[in-house]
Design a protein that fits this description.
DNA mismatch repair protein MutL, alpha+beta, 5-stranded mixed beta sheet, 8-stranded mixed beta sheet, MutL_C, ATP binding, DNA damage, Heat Shock Protein 90, DNA repair, Ribosomal Protein S5, domain 2, formyl-coa transferase, domain 3
Amino acid sequence: MGRIRILSDQVANQIAAGEVVERPASVVKELLENSIDAGATRIRVEVEGGGRKLIRIVDNGHGMVKDDALLAFERHATSKLRTSDDLLSIATLGFRGEALPSIASVARVHLQTRAIEDEAGTEIEIAGGNILRVEDAGMPTGTTIAIRDLFFNTPARRKFLKTEQTELAHIAALVTHYALAHPSKHFELHSATQALLIAPAVANAGERLFQIFGKDTAMYMLPTTAEMDFARAGLPEPPPWKREADYEAPDPGYIRITGFVSKPELQKLNRNSIYVFVNHRLIRDRLVTHALIEAYRNIIPPTSFPVVLLFLEMPPQEVDVNVHPAKTEVRFRQPSFVHDFIRDTVRTTLMNARPATSFAAALHPATNSASNSLLLDVSPMPGAPDQPVFSPNPQSEPEPSFADAEAFTLQAPTLPESPGRLEFSEQSIPVGYDAERPEDNQQQTLNALATLKPLGQLRDSFILAVNDEGLWIVDQHVAHERVLFEKILREREIEKVQRQRLLMPLLIDLLPAQMIRFAELADELDRNGFEAEPFGPRTLAIKAAPVGLEGRELERMLEEVLGVPEREQQTENSDTRRRRIAASIACHAAIKINTPLDSSKIDWLLAELAKTEHPTSCPHGRPIALRYSYKDVQKAFQRI
């Protein structure tokens, strides 16, 4: 007898479940996508035990007839594809037909569904892939599916699940993502102890952003939108000898971006607050993430990340969603075109907005500075650890000691209201900004820098200036750094960098790795005004340098440029390298703190700063100017 045999359907489904069903959140994702594809406008998710015990999803979609309900649990049974050509233009969230049979093979499933044309619904019970009961049932139009005892027949998989709180956090993040992507639908998420998310349908994505994350986050978000036709990408057409007689060039379609990006002062410690959707599909794509990071380069610190809610729309044939069983990864037909379009759109939005940082924002970093992510509270009891449950590596809690125990009382503890419990009045919700102070929000820009009148310096380090908007404090070092940075980039672009020759060559001793790095960067350094050559195996002779760099600052700048870790070198492209070198030159050539400036130099610096494209922050992400508004001054003196 041969060694090779065909696997049974049950084993094949369990193998598929290993690809599709990674954790309870994977089950929620597949079922949520089915509900959205079914045209549901109200979706309710109930979870117990972090999804291990129960996941129930109720929707008011079009439902299924009895035959379709039974066929849906067969492998690769789908209503969304007919031919292989349909794979090239997928317009639905689900299409593989693997989710339901894979889930049913590792859990106990209870399905209730009714199509609008049927008088009675269908009720099906399945355990471990085996159908136990099929009956008619009375129910409203739509589908209710309950998943109990996930991985009950695969205990090895169950052992690899995290704590209930961690699994619940993943589910909460997922439902939040889809609520953001579909503002016209009503979403609810309930655990055994509380309502984590109640998001009624709203008019647009801006209202949904305000609804879920609140005013404190929405006020730091900037709307962005752009559109471009794919014809500019220069897609090749088939040669004439391969065209049919009735051949017509296909319409390339458009790529559109809508959404919100954060102002530079709103920063996070990880990528968890980057929400990206392609044709309303939630994705985790390195290409898009890299484009967003590049858009914020030299605007926020390299270790921080922005908050982004971005919607990409493009023709289905331009994106391949059939590259991963979980459908969270996609492949773009024109990746470079999409990358550059996203980067340029976001960067243009930031430069046009020129947001100003107020003293209140700078002095209260808890509301807007770097924190882990925008998360719903999923702690079921008071006294939960401060460690965010969404953290990819949550730390274990310390064991409680006798000294930590509270005195015994017969009073019931008061449960604090969870930040995840959202309440809404019947009135319309002001989107993105505080409705009580519209005049302040209109002035939160740096467009008035050209009107500043300098008063002097604070300890020879900060420039004090005023205008009709209020009192400004400008960091003279980072302001000059921004001016020089953009000047270097412009001169580098037209190859007119100013350089100064040194009276005597400056000799710098380097490590072997730095000498190798110099050989790689020699051409770029030459374009930025350096004239250098090796002077022995480990010595570099500098004969000329950019104007403004001299002595010890010149040595420090070269050590900084040549001392980049190898991991960063591997991911660095030509544009990133050019900006990094320009930022380093600007930093070491800029006016230092504790440097007295006369009035003419202060006037020049403020005038040049007003001309820059992005005067919000220096190339390393530090704020340049802080404004204490006239209204804040009035409040401080109790005038209003």
